[in-house]
Amino acid sequence: MDRRTFAVIALLAGLGLGLVGNLLFYNQPLGFSFPVFIGASVALVLLLAKPAGVQVRRRNLWPLVPMMGFALMVAVRADPLITSLNIAATLTLGGLALYYITAPQALDEDPFVDYIGHTLETSFMVLPYGFAETAQGWEWLRERRQRGAQFAAVTRGLVFALPIVAVFTVLLGSADAVFARYVTDAWNGVMRALGIEMLGDTFGRGLFTLALALIVTGGITWGLKRKPLPAPTPTLKDAEVVEPDESEGGTAETAADEKRKPAFKLSMVESGIIMGSVVALFAVFVVIQFAYFFGGQETIAQQGLSYAQYARRGFFELAAVAGLTLGLALWLDRVTLRQGRENVTFRGLALAIVALTSVMLVSAFQRMWLYEEAFGFTQLRVYVHVFMVWLGVLFGVFVLALFRVRKNVFSLGSLLVIIGYLGTLNLMNIDGYIAERNIARYRAGETEELDIAFLNILSSDAIAPIAELYQSAEAGSTVEQWSGQWLARHRDELVREQAGWTLFNANMAKRTAWDQVLRMALPEYDPSLWWGSYWSAYDANGNLYGSGWDDAATLTPGTR
To answer: Does 219 share its domain with 261?
Structure first.
C-alpha cells in the first residue's frame, strides 16, 4: 500500500473513531465508554498494521494488558482522584505501547529514562502527525482528480456545497417560519437518532470530533508509519568488561554485566568508605529502633513522647531516607569501577544497606499505621502507606539489578512497580476503605468523635460502610442525622444522573450505590444541613478538640 493511500485510510479510521468518541464522550459522564473507546483504538492500530506493511513487535505489546485494566477501572470506581489516575495511566501506557509497537528494540530491555522520553515524544508528535496525514490525504485527492476526475469532482463538490447550503438554509429559515419549523424538526430528528439533543451543540461537537479524529489519525500514523531508530548495539569500546578473579573461583560476567563507562568514576576504596559509613549509621539507628519503637509504648513514654507522636514525627523522614538510599545505591553501582573480589565487597555492602533500609521501611510502615489508628485515615495517608509497600518491592528489584539478573532489570521493575501501585489503589477501593476504617475506630472507642467533616468529601465508593453506619446508629443521634443526610444527598445526585444513564456511560460503583440507596428508607435531603456545615478542629498534634453543626452562613470548615 502506497503512503498516500494509507493516509486516506488512517484519516477515515480517525474520523470514524472521532464520531464514535463524539457520541460516547461529548457532555457525557465517563463510564464503560472509556474502555470501549480505548479498546477500539487498540484494535484499529493492530488491524491496520498489516495493510501498512509493518511488523508488530509482539514482545512489546504487554503494556496493553495493564492499560486496558486501568481503562476498565474508570467504569468501576467513582472516586475522582482514582479516575484521574486511571485515565493518566491508560494514556501513558498507551503512548508507551504506541512507540514500541514496531520498534526494533525490546521495551523490557530499555532504560527507564527512555520510557519517559518516548512517552513524552509520542504525546508531542501525535497532533503533528495527524496534520501531516491530512496533508497526505489532500495530496491523494489531488492525484485522484487527475486519474479519476469524476470521483474527485464529486468529493470536492460535496465539500464546497455543504457550507453553502447551510448558509442559504439559515437565511431561508429566517425568512419563513414554516420552512424554519420543518428544517428544525428534520434536523432535531436526525440529532435525536444519533443521541444529540441540542442544535446549539453542533459547532462544539464538530470541533470535538475533528480534534479526536486528528489525535487518532496521528496516533495510528506515529505508531505504524514513523521510521523507528535502530536498536543501539553496544561495542567493546563502550563497555567495561568485568574480569573474573580466579583466586576466588569467579567466572566471566555475562554481557548483562557490561556497563557503559560513566563520566565520573569512583574506585572501590572510595565507594567502600561511603557505603561502610552508611551501613554503620543505619546499624546504630536500627538498634535504637528495636530498643524504643519496637519496644512498645512504655519505652517511648520514658522519652516524654506519646506513641502516636513518636510515630508521626518519624514517618516522612524515614521515607525520605529510604528514597535517598535507593538513589545513592543506584548511583554508586553506576560510577564504581570494580572487578573480582571488589564486586563481592560492593554487593555485600549494598545488601547490608538494603537489609538495614528494609528495617527502616518496616518501621515507617508501622509508624504510619499507628498514626492512622491515632488520628484517622485519609487519602494521602493511605496512598503513602501503600507506596511504602511498593517501595520495599522496588528495593527487591534493586537487588536483582545488583546481581545483573538481566539487562536493565531495574528499569522494567520500576515500571512494573508503578503499575502495581496504581493497581493496588484500584483494588482497595480507597474511599470505601477509609470510611470503613474511620467508622471502625469510632465504634471501638478509639476516638470520641466521628470525623464527619472528612467523611463528607468521600465519593459513592464509600456508600456501603456509611449505609451500614446509618442503619446501626442510634435514632436521633448526630451520626444518624449526618449519615442519613450524606446518603440522601448521594441518592439525589444519583437520581439526577440516572436519567441520562446508558450502557456506555454507566459506572459500576454508582450503579451499585443506586441499587443500595433505593432499598433504604432515607430522610429528605435538607440543604441547610449540607455536608460543609459540620466542622472539626484539631490541635497542633492532630488531636480533635472540638466539632459540631454550624449554620452555613457562619461556617468554619474543619481541617485535617
So the answer is: no
Residue 232: inside a domain = no
What is the DSSP code (8-state) at residue 552?
A: G
Residues 201, 254 within the same domain = no
pTM to 2 decimal places: 0.76
Give yes or no: residues 182 and 312 share one domain. Answer: no
Q: C-alpha grid cell for residue 91?
A: 494514556
> In terms of domains, do 405 and 450 share one?
no
Cα 245 from chain centre: 46
Task: Decide which of 164 and 156 is more confident.
Answer: 164
235 lies in a domain?
no
Q: Which is more confident, 261 or 399?
A: 399
In a domain, 433, yes or no: no
Please identify, among 394, 428, 462, the residue that sits at the C-terminal boundary of a domain: 428
pLDDT one-digit tens code per residue, 175-212:
767 777 777 778 777 666 655 554 456 667 778 888 88
CA distance 336 to 270: 9
Give the Cα separation of 287 and 298 in Å (integer).
17
End-to-end CA distance of the chain: 62
Buried b (16+ CB within 10 A) or exposed e, 17-48: bbebbbbbbeeeebbbbbbbbbebbbebbeeb
Do residues 535 and 560 lie in contact, with contact meaning Cβ atoms separated by under 8 Å? no
Same domain, 396 and 474: no
Amino acid at 11: L
| H helical segments located in 148-256 | 149-175, 177-193, 202-225
Dist CA 449 CA 435 (whole Å): 14
Range of the structural domain that residue 456 is part of: 446-554
Same domain, 416 and 270: yes
pLDDT in tens, 374-432: 778 888 888 988 988 898 999 999 999 888 888 888 999 999 999 999 999 999 999 99
For the segment 321-343, what is each residue's pLDDT rounded down to a tens digit? Answer: 888 888 888 888 888 888 888 88
What is the DSSP code (8-state) at residue 267?
E
> Residues of 69-96 as b/e, b for ≥16 C-beta within 10 angstroms?
bbbbbbbbbbbeebbebbbebbbbbbbb
Burial class (CB in 10 A: 0-12, 13-18, 19+), 54: middle
> 207 and 137: one domain?
yes
**Average confidence score pLDDT of the chain:** 77
Which of 428, 457, 481 is a domain's end point?
A: 428
CB 326 within 8 A of CB 394: yes
C-alpha cell recorded at residue 24: 460516547
Rg (C-alpha) for the chain, rounded Å, is 31
Given a cut of 60, is residue 535 above it in pLDDT? no
Beta bridge partners of 337: 267
